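TICKET #2291
ISSUE: user wants both folds in one file
ATTACHMENT 1:
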Amino acid sequence: MAPRAPNGGARNFWTRIASAAVLAPIAIGAIWLGSPWFDLMVIAASAALAWEWAKLCRYGRFEGRDWPFVSAVAGVVLLPALGVSVLLALLLAFALAGAWLFGGLAASAEASGWRSAGLLLIALGGIALLTIRSGGQGLHATIWVFVVTWAVDTGGYLVGRVCGGPKLAPRISPKKTWSGLAGGLLAAIAVGVAYPYGVAATAISAATTAVLVGGAAVIGDLFESAAKRRFGLKDSSALIPGHGGLLDRVDGLLLAAPATALLLSESWRWG
């Protein structure tokens, strides 16, 4: 491997800052404005994520026959934005996942399985985000799931780097540690309790919800890591300069959002 240039780390750092400076205001603005801007952002992001997942399942290559997969994911996420029942959109997502799993629409049985899982992961995440934002406490609940997911990721990274210790899942993600998991969940509790609006009425319920949603985010992160390790990729793509792929940034959110939507439903809501 060629040695990295002395200023390579600094260049990458500023590239990451520049990318964040462009993308963060777009995301924040869309969350704040709601429909149709938030809907458009989620649908576009879902299509980009499907494109990355299709590439991932072909060891980093994208072929013309992968466009139906991208269209299927984006189409399913589009349905709730058009006023179609969320239940119908979910049923269609599972039907399409089954088509890829059992219909031989990918190069191999294993690739079909990964594609089906990716389709469900992205579609459920997108549908959940649209459902949360369109709810009665949509703005606050959407902000909450974003900041809790960010806290899990950031807290886990910082505590893991400082404390180290036993690995969480060495065969899947060698850098993740149990101390990082604990730090991430504690960070999720802290921000979840500090900003409970639209999600919970008491500190205890906010903390409990934050732990469950934070745990879902960790599982989503590990799932994407397992997929990348299986197909020999470091990043899902180079879509975001300095950051890798969009999937690398929102893998935790794709499971955190469905968990939040489920916990906010009337059958699960607690005081």
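ATTACHMENT 2:
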Amino acid sequence: MLHAQFGFNSIRILPVAKALQIPLVVSFHGLDASKLLRKKSYRNGVKKVFNYASAIVICNPAMVDALPLTHKQKDKVVWIPYGIDTQKFSGIVHQAHSNPQLLHVGRLVEKKGVPDLIRAFSKITLQNVKPILHLVGTGPQENICRTLVKELALEDQVQFHGWKSPEEVKQLMQLCDLFILNSRIALDGDSEGLPVGLLEAMGMPVISTRHTGIPWAIDDGVNGILVSEHDTDALTQTIKVLLTNEEKRHSIAVAARKKIEERFTIQQMHEKLYEIYSSALDKRQ
């Protein structure tokens, strides 16, 4: 059988699956269930895939309404959230440091909302300490972000790390007090599926937005804090509240880790995929 990752790859591989008369499973991840759907040729292509596919895997339930599925095709849809290696990203043990440390991990693209994160960060004032914002990732908005940091005179408080390996990201998570992902729908329609970086961070206090699949991972006020997309003032206030409330940070971190272990492990993801493969093969026999 064939498993196509991303809708655009499933369109390319569909003729092969048909020619060989073998099952096809397709997984959608974000761009392929948002921005690309604005193109008529792509929409028509995935509709043909849906007709043939044995299973349609989505990483967040909101994709059911976004994808051009018929009522009958929706019966093929299975929600399988991403899973992380809980041995590699275990509960975070924070190092002692004098200034609060904030962390963003993700490409510097519009849907990540990093310029607005920098603006929110610039408004944070804490008595006798200067918070530090760590930005991990590269992308087309890097120059915009660097220019903004200079304009706001934050050069000594914002650190650009560029690309980092998973092990280096883990080390930064152990250093930092808060993880922030300020996601939103981009002007071109691009949106998140379910950010893996956010799941990996859910052993520490996390702040994010009410955006696509994120509320399926974060229960607001329990294992993280959510603000509305583009609400920079609310983001600033939420950061301040958590930085000044150690007990709240601890309770969120503990609850976040519990949610990951219950719902978002790589073992659970693999088991669900195995079930889908077995079912698809059984139907073809």
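RESOLUTION: both attachments delivered.
EXTRA DETAIL ON ATTACHMENT 2: The chain has eleven helices and ten strands.
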